[in-house]
Specification:
The structure is a homodimer of 214-residue chains. With 214 residues, the first copy, chain A, is mainly alpha-helical. Chain A folds into two domains: 2-61, Homeodomain-like (Arc Repressor Mutant, subunit A, Orthogonal Bundle); 64-212, Tetracycline Repressor, domain 2 (Orthogonal Bundle), CATH 1.10.357. Chain A has twelve helices and no strands. The longest helix of chain A is centred in the middle third of the chain and has 26 residues, at 121-146. Chain A is elongated and about 60 Å long. In chain A, 39% of the residues are buried. The model of chain A is unreliable at 1-5 and 203-214 (pLDDT under 50). At the A-B interface, helix 10, helix 11 and helix 12 of A face helix 10, helix 11 and helix 12 of B.
């Protein structure tokens, strides 16, 4: 939307998306550093000048790819989660949605995992802020699940461990491998939910004591 | 050792380490892409020619940093883990050691997490092979812990989720933040061990069924 507001028509936006997709695939295959604008223009079947009509630099293309992917992750999630009454189901929903979206946009997701840190600070800031918003929705669901027993700063740390698990799955997952993504998502979910359930039910494991310490 | 065999004296190796450390700090602060050999030579208080005496390129420096960090992670671990009789304690040992080493070499660990994917394939291969060896030790401990109930390919996936959690902690951790690394390690440990314990004790949760499916 923001992009459209910058004076691009829908058709031009689609063109940007096509260039972004071609670039993301190259970043994944060759690495961000090794991918040149020339490579991108060849893959997108445009002249280098054609690319410059849409983007100012390789960083600009990466930013566009990541920004759109973050929008895909964030947009609507707040509302979707709000409509789920059970907090455990909210966490499950976020986890499965995270990995499902990954599966539809593997090069873009990998660009976020791997290439995003190559963005100069002023570009990265915008992405990091959307990441924060996204992580915040999981933190909220977790806080609700814990029922106020765990201090927020620890809930935040715990939400990062779940994203860490999911992202490790994304690195590890091979569509031709022996375990389908759905099953890997389930493994991730079961370990995490089994793992945090003891913090909720109020048993006095050493872990709980530590989590609840001031 | 390999480096020494390449004809570098211990003193020269130390010099390489000092350059590597200065470079890793810059990679962390400025990003790998944005760091030039000129920046590294200034930080290491050497001329650019001085750097070229020790390294052929920026990739070469990054490779050296990562290779040494991987050695630090891998070397001795096999023996250390072998001496721990209880498999749950083995897992605990690997996890705490992973995060403790991180804490002594933050720029190097961050280079592994963030910059390593910028290495050209022929460089990255050597690092990836050491990563595989390292992950294999956790997989072995987990397989022992599960007592043969979980197929190896699933144990592997589970070991990656644990590394994912640890690495998320490494991204998230701020030495000046409200939670010390020791406590974050404990949170990670408790969630993971609570999480996987049900796969060991043979309860018939849906998670277990799925993990044990052929």
């Amino acid at each position: 939307m923001e992009i459209l507001a910058k004076g691009f028509s829908e058709k031009e936006f689609e063109k940007k998306c096509a260039i972004g997709r071609a670039a993301a695939r190259l970043f994944d295959e060759k690495g961000y550093l090794e991918t040149s604008l020339k490579d991108i223009s060849a893959a997108a079947k445009l002249s280098k000048g054609g690319i410059y009509h849409y983007f100012t630099s390789k960083h600009d293309i990466l930013y566009f790819v990541l920004d759109n992917y973050m929008d895909l992750l964030v947009q609507g999630l707040d509302q979707e989660v709000r409509e789920i009454p059970d907090p455990a189901m909210k966490i499950r929903y976020i986890l499965f949605r995270h990995l499902k979206l990954y599966n539809t946009k593997v090069p873009e997701a990998k660009a976020l995992l791997i290439a995003s840190r190559n963005l100069p600070a002023q570009f990265f800031k915008g992405i990091a802020s959307k990441e924060k918003e996204y992580a915040g929705l999981l933190t909220e669901a977790l806080a609700e699940y814990f029922g106020g027993t765990v201090p927020l700063v620890r809930v935040k740390a715990i939400s990062y461990t779940l994203f860490g698990m999911c992202n490790a799955i994304m690195y590890w997952y091979n569509p031709e491998g022996p375990i389908p993504l759905e099953e890997l998502s389930q493994i991730c979910h079961d370990i995490f939910m089994n793992g945090v359930s003891s913090y909720r039910t109020g048993n006095d494991s050493p872990g709980l004591t530590r989590l609840c310490a001031p």
